[in-house]
Amino acid sequence: MKGTTVSPLLAALLAPAIASAFVCGARHNYSSGLAHRTPAFVFSVPSKRGSVSVSSEASPSAPLSSASSPPATDGTQALSEDWELDCYSRPVVDPSTNKKLWEVLLTDASGSLRVCAPLPSNRVNSREVRAIVEAAVDASDVKPQTIRFFRGAMFNMISIALADVDGITIRPSRCCYRLADWIDERMVEVYPKMPGYRLSMAVDGPASSFLDVRTPVKLPDALRGEKYAYVSLPLAEFLEGGSITSENVGAGRLCPIPEAKSLPADAFVQGVVILTPRAGALAKWLAGTEVASMRCDLRRRTLVMEADISTQYLVAKLNDVQREEGTAFEEGKDQLGGLHFVSVQVDGDDDEPAGFWLLRDQEAAEWDERGESETISDGGVVQTARIRHECPFKVFILPTDLHDSKCQSFPRE
Hints:
It contains seven helices and 15 strands. By secondary structure, it is α/β, with parallel strands linked by helices. A hairpin with a 5-residue loop joins strand 3 and strand 4 (114-119). The radius of gyration is 23 Å and the shape is globular.
């Protein structure tokens, strides 16, 4: 890793974190100090040596505890090589300086890693962000291969910060699911309890705006299949004991299923299947775009693919029949908190797709915490037992059978 100039204060905070370890495998949540205090660096990195946890608000003379502990058996997931990063201001203002609290949040795709480092507003720069990331990488036995971030406003600073971190691919992406969940958690449980909290500032995440006037661009030829269709699969296939896992999704990825929500096992996840003889090549191209969601814009009558931080691709224009199918697709997404999928296959008889993405539209309608999710079924009949077998990708549930006369062709413009 290339050398980085670190401020003396940050170096003093990070040094004991890299040198000490205790409580193997546990994941911790901590509330942070205000920016006008000595910045609290909160660090939780599960590793083979143990979990590192440091807070500068502890007495500087108190020695850190360390013990030889067995690996965690509390269900904590293994640390992932895919990490997620955010650096932004929070809805907390220091009363003494009237400056916003800034934080660097770093987590991984499993949610096992959590690093929280507040930054004074006059030290928000790429050098400080790079120092925090490098410290986390050094302290972890599982090194990240990819770091994703979703904020377009911080694109330049984060790109510069991570450019010199060896062995890491930077991916601007809205697929920062664990990070989004953690930010939402802190918005509810942490920031409101801090002095200087401002409710009016508590709007965060990659939410859409009524001022969004982006126009989808033409779908690149490399991402264009021959035909597509709206389909669905049982939610049970994605849960523990289901048939769809990270081992059989090809070039795709599976987003985490929301744990805090009551999801009926007989619900159906809506999706779009793309059929093409060049499924392998298209799936690899799609993996490189950081596909975030598929969305039917019912007002404009278009099917849109959302990718990276802000890119929109026009997949197809919808006629009246397709618009009705798109309405059902969007309703199904809303009922499951934005969950949906994209599958790339040669045809409907493939045992496994070339690429399968379980996605969560973070711009979908919010969950109604007071109500129960409505069961999604095919024609009003739920037949979960019938469709659970070794090859779930062969049994998409469609309004009609999956054959050429019912699939929609990609427009050729």
